[in-house]
């Protein structure tokens, strides 16, 4: 008998159909279907759900839910909204996601390293001027967050000749990375980073982490890349730091409100590059394979995959 798994997500119909097709192609004796197509009896029997930005009121219609498999890596919204502390959250840990993110980190690091924002301004001004070129070895890159995304990005940067510094909440080690932790470690990595890459999860501790005080600890004319979550960076503090020319440029892919409102001053600031949350989109095919493996293994063994620690938010 085929087991039915509800799919709950606030995504477009096209995206939902793509996810369902990819998931079911990798499952046997199990079928993922939209929650709306499940009757009351099927909802009662459901022990797990596949989710992508789910409506918590819909998940509440599954009385025996034990865990959810997220198709997204970010889970802060799930942690905040999911009803019932007993429901375990399994985040997406697709190796392709880490590879995609590392590619984006390298691309936009090179964008800053090779002074592309300045050359763009010079083109507008019709100014023919060759700027001094630094070698990658002269440009230390700091990474805040040494999870799977941070470590993959560190490997990519190191392979391209950049010295890499890494910071995490607790002491850790990473290949070819000088690591730091704690408040003292954060101050040290900020002091030494020519380009700072933010890859931290959004938690109560990281919300508003980059404020006036911490921006001031960065070297003059340094730059930041935020590929994590918007609220980690205090927007007004960032604008103040840029306007007093302590910070050279900011590449922002994530924001407090998305899509970024047309009224936001970030759009028109000359020292900000705005991206529409494209650094590491979920790849439906590879993410669906990972999710299907977790689901199939659960029905064969009864073991729920490693889940999020709600006390720390990831």
Automatic annotation (TrEMBL):
It holds the Pfam family 2-Hacid_dh_C. It comes from the Bacteria. Keywords: NAD, Oxidoreductase, Pyruvate. Coiled coil: none annotated. CDD domains: GDH_like_2. The keyword NAD applies. GO terms for molecular function: NAD binding; oxidoreductase activity, acting on the CH-OH group of donors, NAD or NADP as acceptor. This is Glyoxylate/hydroxypyruvate reductase A. It comes from Kozakia baliensis. The lineage of its organism: Bacteria, Pseudomonadati, Pseudomonadota, Alphaproteobacteria, Acetobacterales.
């Amino acid at each position: 008998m085929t087991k039915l798994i509800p799919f709950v997500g606030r995504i477009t119909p096209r995206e939902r159909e793509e996810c369902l097709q990819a998931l079911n192609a990798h499952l046997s004796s199990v079928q993922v279907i939209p929650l709306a197509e499940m009757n009351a009896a099927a909802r009662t029997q459901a022990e797990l759900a596949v989710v992508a930005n789910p409506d918590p009121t819909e998940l509440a219609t599954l009385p025996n839910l034990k865990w959810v498999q997220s198709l997204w890596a970010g889970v802060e919204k799930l942690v905040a909204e999911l009803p019932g502390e007993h429901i375990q959250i399994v985040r997406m840990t697709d190796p392709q996601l880490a590879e995609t993110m590392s590619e984006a980190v390298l691309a936009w690091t090179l964008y800053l390293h090779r002074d592309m924002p300045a050359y763009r301004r010079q083109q507008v001004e019709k100014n023919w001027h060759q700027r001094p070129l630094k070698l990658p070895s002269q440009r230390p890159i700091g990474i805040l967050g040494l999870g799977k995304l941070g470590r993959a990005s560190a490997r990519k940067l190191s392979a391209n000749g950049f010295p890499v510094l890494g910071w995490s909440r607790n002491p850790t080690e990473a290949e070819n990375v000088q690591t730091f932790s704690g408040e003292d470690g954060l101050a040290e990595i900020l002091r030494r980073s020519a380009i700072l890459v933010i890859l931290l999860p959004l938690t109560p501790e990281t919300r508003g982490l980059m404020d006036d005080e911490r921006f001031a600890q960065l070297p003059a004319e340094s730059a930041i890349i935020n590929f994590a979550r918007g609220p980690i960076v205090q927007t007004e503090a960032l604008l103040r730091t840029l306007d007093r020319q302590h910070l050279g440029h900011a590449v922002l892919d994530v924001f407090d409100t998305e899509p970024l409102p047309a009224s936001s001053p970030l759009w028109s600031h000359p020292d900000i590059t705005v991206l529409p949350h494209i650094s590491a989109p979920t790849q439906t095919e590879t993410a669906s394979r990972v999710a299907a493996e977790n689901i199939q293994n659960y029905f064969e063994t009864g073991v729920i995959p490693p889940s999020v620690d709600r006390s720390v938010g990831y």
